[in-house]
Amino acid sequence: MEIKKATFVVSNSDxxxxxxxxxxEYAFIGRSNVxxxxxxxxLTGNKGLAKTSVKPGKTQLINHFLINNEWYLVxxxxxxxxxxxxTARSQWQRMIENYxxxxxxxxxxxxxxxxxIPPQKIDLEFIHFLGTHGIPMSLVFTKVDKQKQREVxxxxxxxxxTLLETWEELPEIFITSAxxxxxxxxxxxxxxxxxxxxxxxxxxxx
Length: 206
Known about the structure:
By secondary structure, the protein is α/β, with parallel strands linked by helices. 34% of the residues lie in helices and 21% in strands. The protein contains 5 helices and 7 strands; from the N terminus they run E-E-H-E-E-H-E-H-E-H-E-H. It has helices at 36-44, 86-102, 121-132, 149-163, 184-200, and strands spanning 6-12, 25-30, 62-67, 71-75, 106-114, 137-142, 172-175. A 7-stranded mixed beta sheet has the order 1-3-4-2-5-6-7, sandwiched between helices.
């Protein structure tokens, strides 16, 4: 897939106010400071599309970006950022959960995980939340340029082994680097494949 156009559309805190076009939506989410904005900018080829910051917790709303006038890339707030009030964290959690559970055009959730850090409880809990509710997902390991290949493999295997304790089948796994653009093509190819499947699926008639 070639991204020819990536346009910011809207930010809001209510899934019911998201664009009502019926286009498929691919949500990106991860623990704060996982490199989400950098990955989104790398995927779209637009360094200024998603706002990056050295301070975690920059994204606080549901952000929709229209890609090639065909699908939406949705930038969701990061989870696990402790330097906010309990009330703010609760509001973020409710906003994210409402979007994930009630948004009919949500097609796939890409869960971003820092490849440098061993399996974390908060990431595993979020993955289990998606799995429990039957929300399609993929795991995206970020920042693989920051360490050796065997260290990346060890982190990924740690997640695999932990999930296989309770899961029969693992989600798709992608390995990425916003710096080297590694993994970009595979991610975009997967999104393109899903979009093609959607177009081929007959629309139920009333």
